Amino acid sequence: MTDRVPVLKIGEVLLVSIQTDLDDQMVLDLQEDLSNRIVATGAKGVVIDISALEIVDSFVGRMLAHNAAVSRILGAETIVVGMRPAVAMTLVELGLSMSGVRTALNLERGLKLLRRIAAGRA
Amino acid sequence: MKDYAAECASLETVPVSTSGDVVSMRQMVRILAQRGGLSLVHQTKLVTAASELGRNMLVYGGGGSVRAASVTDAGRPGVFVEFRDKGPGIADLDLALTDGWTSGNGMGLGLSGARRLVDEFDIESGPSGTTVRIVKWAK
Amino acid sequence: MNTESNIRLLVDTLTEQREKFLTQWTRTVGEDLRGRLSTAELGRELGELYDAVLEAMTAGSLDSRGEHFAETRSLLIELSRNRARQGFTPTETVRSVFALKEVLEPSLTGDADSARAYLQFARLLDGLGLLTSEAYLRTREEIISSQAEQLLELSTPVVKLWDGVVGVPLVGTLDSARTQVVMEKLLQTLVDTDSTHAIIDITGVPTVDTQVAQHLLKTVVAARMMGAQCTISGIRPQIAQTIVALGIEFGDIPTNASLSDALRQALKEVALDAEDDVRGLL
């Protein structure tokens, strides 16, 4: 597998929009790419859009939580946006609450939340 | 658990030996779930459980094969999936089914979490391999 | 006299006097149903049934569960489904079958031989009667479960309370099927209306046990993972007492005593966000 999830830079924000069903290797690659890009760009925030994901299993869930923790150490706040209701209900049943991860309903709200955090208001 | 595999006229089988295979297996299960009339939440739960069990099989059992079929019970449609590997087996099943227990580097939600996501769950494990069977009903 | 000759006797009698028996049967059943089915319709229904039974017996069978009676069974299932849907009682439905016994009784109890044949026929009808009541029950169960489903849909309206705030007033007992529906609807509404706050009002819920608390907690966690905040309001004093007495872990669930308090809190937060927007901070 050579497919990688693109990491886009917009100002001080890195945007990751996951559009395909990920296999485990792609998940690991993304994890690595993201931390490298945060360091390389000095980004202050990361938004991961998962609105296209039909399932999030414990592996992907763990990657999201791991990324949030790693990027925080590197000085960037991560917002996971667009989780589908069915996915959220499944994750709860699976026993994953992603308590360390900040979330927003959609990309727009995610970007707003990042700016609010930057302004020290959230 | 009933022997659903014996009742099914047509079982779809896919080998799982890479993480890419897990993705195609998930897609096969989702198509069956959609055809079986499972609600979106039920579909998502079933496919997520399949993903967990498929990965378990790959990581701990060295890969194997997955069989799936549409089943009915008293007019209620559902989907049956069987995961079979020829790995070393699970030494302590009760322990493996406990939340948070893991022999690898996962979070230990694979088996116990998958069990919570489906309606029927059955596991057999021995030195010659592990077989997990699950069923999710439409209601 | 053996079974074979009994069957022959029955078949002969039923064939010879078909018109007479059928008319009587239709009349008896018609009286039972007190005119709620037209005589013509009833006559056609029972005529088909009569001929199916006769045909199976002509083939030499008296076994209501045997292959010769397949046609009869499907007619009976059809009949009891219709009766169940039209609101007839189980007695009225099964009597449609048993009435044939009464009709045949006078013609078949003249001598010992025909009495024996009659008894065998009665046993056959008993079997068919049981089948009818089973089919009737199954249909009623289907009707009940489909109504329960409709009720589920009806009883959980998710309403928009304000821009960015949705609410769902829960009334009645919460079980897991219902909570599942509420949860799904509520979370979907959050996405559809781009709302960041949800309020579940449980003023109308009589009791909260460990399981209900679990369901509420799951909804709150799921909403949080989607990026919304979910509050439980309308916790009556007795329920608060029960929650504490049972030692239910409610810790992680934001709660308010009344819906208005919850709404005020949600509006405050929504307003704060809007203020940030206006200030051009964002």
Concise account of the structure shown:
The complex is a heterotrimer of chains A (122), B (139) and C (282). By secondary structure, chain B is an alpha+beta fold. Chain B contains five helices and five strands.
Report on the architecture of this protein.
The complex is a heterotrimer of chains A (122), B (139) and C (282). With 122 residues, chain A is an alpha/beta fold. Chain A is 46% helix and 18% strand. Chain A has one domain (7-118): STAS domain (Transcription Regulator spoIIAA), CATH 3.30.750.24. Chain A has a 5-stranded mixed sheet with strand order 1-2-3-4-5, with helices on both faces. In chain A, α1 (24-41) runs parallel beside α2 (58-73). The longest helix of chain A has 18 residues, at 24-41. Chain A is globular, with a radius of gyration of 13 Å. Chain B has a 5-stranded antiparallel sheet. The mean pLDDT of chain C is 86. Chain C has a 4-stranded mixed sheet with strand order 1-2-3-4, with helices on both faces. In chain C, α4 packs across α6 and α7 runs parallel beside α8. Chain C is α/β, with parallel strands linked by helices and 282 residues long. In chain C, α7 (176-193) links the parallel β2 and β3 (197-204). At the A-B interface, α2 and α3 of A face α2, α3 and α5 of B.
